[in-house]
Design brief:
Number of helices: 12
CATH class of the largest domain: Alpha Beta
Number of domains: 2
Shape: elongated
Strand content: 5-15%
Number of strands: 9
Strand order of the largest sheet: 3-2-1-4-7-5-8
Largest sheet: 7 strands, mixed
Radius of gyration: 25 Å
CATH superfamily of the largest domain: Spore Coat Polysaccharide Biosynthesis Protein SpsA, Chain A
CATH topology of the largest domain: Spore Coat Polysaccharide Biosynthesis Protein SpsA, Chain A
Oligomer: single chain
Distance between the termini: 41 Å
Length: 439
């Protein structure tokens, strides 16, 4: 599809729906439902959404079904709904990918506000108007639903909850992200912002949301967060392991592009948020690269210290006790060195708190290394000292990645954002305005 959409009508000139004359159309909101093989859920979802919008939304709206390469009866269901309901439009794409579907439909829509939601309607629809209202008023540029906000009410399994929070922590530690929930299938964006932002987003799958938000945040756009009521769909067809692997590849790709200056974020200039040339962004890629080098140097030295202490303590006690003692001493030294050399924190202010937080990070390493020794012991036989050291080195490498993310996101966050970065594990903000510090 290469059709150019008609110019977007300014929001200020659009009358409420009840003021429109018969036959007059003024679409303010285009809600996209990306689907792939959803023949069972599609019709109930669309009819329920249409009824909700007709009853609660004060402006004209459209619901667009974006079918991406379904192989079941989904295209037939979409076409039938298109014929039966005036506000419904069906679009068929021959290639799979949620990001591809959203980019295609959003790029062609003339509506001044664009949104999307998952077909399972896990999010309570009462959050839809609060989601798009700041975009209609011009207060914000993007809006996202958050399942990790303190006031959100969420029903889902512990595995998905853990993975969601860990992914959020990875984003905060590696890309300095400050939004709380990248993966919630409930988002909206102003159409004029989408015109400039979408061409920069490369991903066509599940990482599309994250990449969109990271680029928007780095460019100084305003992201509004809405706590949502969410009930997980037990019949979800999302492949968790494959999606997680693709997301981590996306994090690496975007992080590398930001570090090399491969993203022309200055294209997103006024009137969309702040011009990034007017202020220094915190957590910039150069700082990340420097921190990685410092962390690796400190980590290498502390690992040598840890192994030397373990060998020393092992002469007079068992492996588990020697491991705990060596890890504790090296962890105190590691936290102190990273505090000064890697993250540039000097003076005694918050030093005790930093060490206490470092001990929490130490506990993670202790679990990994002690578990590795226990597994080695359970394997049977008497392991040599060299085998014990090899197992501990492998376990420490795994713990090192998580340790850096915890240090960067929790123990030593950027000073400007120290208070709100704790949302990675216990989010406390209900709304998010990226221009707080700039304005």
């Amino acid at each position: 599809m290469t059709t150019t959409p008609p110019p977007r009508t300014p929001l200020s000139s659009l009358p409420p729906r009840e003021h429109l004359r018969l036959g007059q159309s003024a679409t303010v909101l285009d809600v996209v439902i990306p689907v792939h093989n959803e023949e069972r859920d599609l019709e109930p979802c669309v009819r329920r959404l249409r009824e909700h919008l007709a009853r609660t939304f004060p402006y004209g709206f459209r619901i667009t079904i974006a079918d991406n390469a379904s192989t079941d009866r989904t295209p037939d269901v979409a076409a039938r709904l298109d014929d039966a309901i005036d506000e419904v439009t069906a679009v068929r794409l021959e290639q799979k990918g949620r990001g591809r579907a959203l980019r295609t439909v959003w790029s062609l829509s003339e509506a001044p506000v664009l949104a999307y939601m998952d077909v399972d309607l896990s999010t309570d629809l009462n959050a839809l108007l609060p989601l798009v209202a700041p975009l209609i008023s011009g207060h914000s540029d993007l809006a996202i639903g958050s399942r990790l906000s303190r006031s959100a009410r969420v029903v889902r399994g512990p595995k998905r909850e853990f993975l969601s929070r860990m992914y959020n922590l990875i984003l905060r530690g590696s890309l300095a992200a400050r939004f709380s929930d990248a993966q919630c299938g409930f988002k909206a964006i102003r159409g004029d912002v989408a015109e400039r932002l979408l061409p920069m987003v490369e991903d066509t799958g599940w990482f599309f949301d994250t990449e969109l938000l990271v680029l928007a945040e780095r460019a100084g756009l305003r992201i509004h967060e809405v706590p949502v009521d969410w009930i997980d769909d037990p019949h979800s067809t999302v492949h968790i392991v494959r999606t997680a692997a693709d997301d981590l590849k996306g994090v690496w790709r975007v992080g590398r592009a930001l570090a090399t200056g491969g993203l022309p974020l200055d294209r997103l200039a006024r009137p969309f948020g702040d011009d990034p040339r007017d202020r220094e962004l915190t957590g910039v890629p150069g700082g990340l690269a420097r921190q990685l080098v410092g962390f690796c140097v400190v980590g290498g030295l502390s690992t040598l210290l840890y192994l030397a202490l373990f060998s020393l303590f092992r002469l007079g006690t068992g492996a588990q006790l020697a491991n705990a003692a060596a890890l504790l001493v090296s962890a105190l030294a590691n936290t102190a060195a990273n505090r000064r050399l890697t993250f540039g924190v000097r003076g005694r202010d918050r030093a005790v708190r930093h060490q206490a937080q470092g001990l929490v990070v130490f506990a993670v390493g202790l679990v990994l290394t002690s578990g590795s020794l226990a597994a080695l012991d359970a394997a049977g036989g008497t392991a040599s000292h060299g085998t014990e050291l090899a197992v501990l080195v492998a376990a420490n490498l795994a713990a090192t990645v998580l340790r850096f993310l915890l240090f960067r996101a929790w123990v030593f966050p950027d000073r400007e954002h120290r208070d709100d970065l704790t949302a990675a594990t216990d989010p406390s903000h209900d709304r998010h305005d990226l221009t707080r510090s700039a304005r």
